[in-house]
């Protein structure tokens, strides 16, 4: 890691006018093996930083600044040519790293797309137009007559976002709504009869859609190449680096509990009290209270329990017993057992599913009747305070936790809760409910050890 | 089924049934279902629909299209068989008649025949993947339990069903006017809600991301069990779709129907839920004071709900209340109580299964008939034909020579005719055009490629 430090140059004042690469083809450059790795690690820092930011629910303006800072800190080089090379090389290395499973591809695609979106916005308008033409976007600006007829609606959309419609010469592009899903999802664009009217300052969405679909296809191709040739050819050189790089972000896989062995049904209540994070305690309380949980809750709690060490047979018995007052054994076997076996990789695709990370839990949108999600993000303040008190968090600490919540640092809020409950620090922070569990068990064991 | 139940059923039939000529108990059972699938279920129409014109003779037809569609059956004993596929209308019909499924679900069209998916699984790549799927929506009345006092859970009556009717109006209008879709089928789900199938070619080929964007566009109600603010409408004005929904559908329905019918402001317990939604405590307590005082002073003939609603509106919308948040509050209350609540997950993913139209709901015995969105006010879930009723109608006239259109002499006739003339025929017409156009375009392309 120190080597990487020496590589990082402080960004100088001379602003680099760089053309944002579209990464159409792998660079015909000679790359030193160490650069191969260091460049990738630097880019990974950027992507990981973006991922953390998204996960904390940062607002667009905050993301804008965050991405710029990350890029400056990790990727800038005083010489434009070097920066472009590093950009391209690191991107292609990470493509190899993140092409190998659906999960990895999805993460990489989403982070690279976010990065691209922001970098596009930093470009001058000439550079933006150049990029647009490189994508060969076939869209024409809306004619004056059409603009006049839609002016009221376009103005209404602008005002609904707290903006005002630009002057009469405002340029809008008329595109199929499918091309700008992010604008449609946020109701940030007027749509009529299948066409979205995209304002000039929103064209980034169009370009990003193109970038994303191109990269998505490219990742599938890379994966094919990787499995068919590269992995074998490079088994002494690149393959070990590539394989190591991906775990350097992903962290441990919590699908199988090793350190603390198995737990049985009768232990669940006890360990829940001492070592479950709030999201899981809440789900457990609800299933005991309602004798039911909706799908999202069953997945979140079920996979967590698997990671904690609950074996399949015990998991089936656990859910069956909890649901029993409402769901007959027969109905349970028919409607619910399949999904539980599925989670343990015994049905369907036969993948051993991994427990959800904090990032995933924070990003869901629980609906009516749902109890899953991250309490720090999804509870009302009142409910959260009450839940923290029930966990035994002191009123002082509750204020600290709420402070993090107000700033949307949900994982930090959970970390503070951990520290308050356990009376010991958690320097790494909480990134995963199963990590919370393991760290908690470690703390408890060392306490017991010192007493004995 | 015990004897007693059977007798009760017969009594019910005598009361409700249109005629008492035949001895058909008012119960759902497998034997009736078998007759229904044998004589009434429109197999050929379902096949025509799911073929989207590819069963024709045109060289542009994709012969494998129907055979790549997943059907899944739930049998009498809750055995669930997924990934079934059929190569012709006869195969489909024979299988349905033979297995007599209590429920038929329709899944996506896959890249390869879903029944043979394992044969493709070894290659490692994701060859088996959904490629087309109608854009679907699922709305359940059980998600409205916090705004209706007449029924809970799966129960529905004529007091609360209009919530479904306005959901149809709001979504249908937007799908047509905003998104430009034309081939939309609304279906009664047989018990507690409605399903929507958007079948335009464009809709069937949407990616998951684009589906999610449309679902989010419609997603206004954001309640979960532990948060509290359910709807928040920021911005200076409402987005055009929301404004239109409000003025054309929601406001009128809320004031004329929901408010008086559900007595939303008549008792303290109920009006407190509305007062809770007013962000300004002094305004809320002013209203509370007035309403507590005039509890006894009955406003003669004026409905108390309406009187109080007018008071609430005048205080919130009076010139004195300059605060933006309060102005929008009336709209937020109306949206909270009336705006459609979609099951988001169903719409977001291509591989979600949805119950086929014309199935019979095993709990109610009612057929999942299409609903005409242009006359959805007239739709009455309590008069939808039931299985026993249909069989009785069949029996009444005795067997006939031509067994083709048996439904003509039952109350299902109207539904099948509506399905054909209002949905299937226009759909197939545009499918035919689409197939021809894309075939001609391909021909043109290959010609151009030859003539340099």
Automatic annotation (TrEMBL), chain A:
Belongs to the eukaryotic-type primase large subunit family. Keywords: 4Fe-4S, DNA replication, DNA-binding, Iron, Iron-sulfur, Metal-binding, Primosome. The keyword DNA-binding applies. Its cofactor is [4Fe-4S] cluster. The keyword NADP does not apply. GO terms for biological process: DNA replication initiation; DNA replication, synthesis of primer. GO terms for molecular function: 4 iron, 4 sulfur cluster binding; DNA binding; metal ion binding. This is DNA primase large subunit C-terminal domain-containing protein. It comes from Gossypium raimondii. GO terms for cellular component: alpha DNA polymerase:primase complex.
From TrEMBL, chain B:
GO terms for biological process: DNA replication, synthesis of primer. PANTHER family: DNA PRIMASE SMALL SUBUNIT. Gene3D superfamilies: DNA primase, PRIM domain. Pfam families: DNA_primase_S. This is DNA primase. Belongs to the eukaryotic-type primase small subunit family. Keywords: DNA replication, DNA-directed RNA polymerase, Metal-binding, Nucleotidyltransferase, Primosome, Transcription, Transferase, Zinc. NCBIfam families: primase_sml. It is an enzyme of class 2 (transferase). Residues 1-22 are annotated as: Disordered. Its cofactor is Mn(2+); Mg(2+). It comes from the Eukaryota. Residues 1-13 have a biased composition (Basic and acidic residues). The keyword Zinc applies. One of its GO terms (cellular component) is alpha DNA polymerase:primase complex. InterPro entries: DNA_primase_S, DNA_primase_ssu_euk/arc. GO terms for molecular function: DNA-directed RNA polymerase activity; metal ion binding. Its EC number is 2.7.7.-.
